[in-house]
Amino acid sequence: MVSTSSTEKLIDVRDLERTFVVRKRSGGLRRTTTEVRAVHDLSFGIEAGEMVGYIGPNGAGKSTTIKMLTGILVPTGGHLRVAGLEPSKHRTDLARRIGVVFGQRTTLWWDLPLRDSFDLLQKIYGIDPARYRENLEEYVALLDLHDLMDTPVRQLSLGQRMRGDITAALLHDPEVLYLDEPTIGLDVISKGRLREFLRALNQTRGTTILLTTHDLQDIEALCRRVIVIDHGTSVFDGTLPDLHVRGGSTRTLVVDLIDEGPPIEVAGATVRRLDGPRQWLSFPSDASAAPIVAAVASAYDVADLSIQEPDIEDVIRDLYLG
Ligand SMILES: Nc1ncnc2c1ncn2[C@@H]1O[C@H](COP(=O)(O)OP(=O)(O)OP(=O)(O)O)[C@@H](O)[C@H]1O
Q1: ipTM of this complex > 0.90?
Q2: In the chain, what are the domains?
């Protein structure tokens, strides 16, 4: 087994590129070819034990990246190693060290009961029987699958199937788990339970998780770090609070005055809206609210104050459009 060098991250991506050549008919028998740069100049490193959100608008290059990380797609340029292995050249070895879950399609056998699907995976991966029993017992209990083990996959609800898929991806103790839209179509309670499970998995087993999702609440609930990809390349890599700052968004101080009055004038904040005695003042996300609150409270008769944090959806929208 290849181990990572001391400088190499568990997932090591440098100047990664994937271009597709697309042939189009351009009238009559003539064909023209165009190149689509799905991913280019993409670099990031992920350490063992991190839980990272990988987000971007439709067509940004997320799936193309995940496919290269799992070895399904061969990069057309750059450097890529996962657990010290070049994915497309060592797909089988790598498969023993990673788990993949796609929210939109199952990797389980449609006509088989869950139990048989799991047993088959034990044989395919050559999982030690004692370890297999232990893992199965743990995940079946944590993901509440006990009463579903004899049900064929095609009869499971979306949420039940997702729990089955996650168990299937974890039975062989992967170091890295890729999750592609794991909460898509799930109700609020199922989403919450799944997030709790993933958080615990990351904390107790130290599983490295790369999460692709359009549901930004998944990211807010789970990921300290987020990589934003747009037009095939990374446009942000950092913590969620930094993303708020980088997105250029503002926080809002909502002030309820005792009496209606003219717009409040304090350094560092601007009145954006005024409705009777209530005024909305915006100030930069990276500025401290304390001096602004103190200035307002000392110069005006205030009944109440509150701070509204920026909505992450707005932050991301700013970033994509900016
Ligand atoms: N096999 C392919 N042949 C040609 N172009 C492709 C191929 N796969 C992807 N692309 C193009 O590469 C770009 C990135 O696509 P990709 O599927 O990676 O985006 P994505 O971020 O996963 O999008 P979504 O959020 O919609 O799933 C798009 O312009 C897409 O049309």
Answers
A1: yes
A2: 11-244 (3.40.50.300), 248-313 (3.30.70)
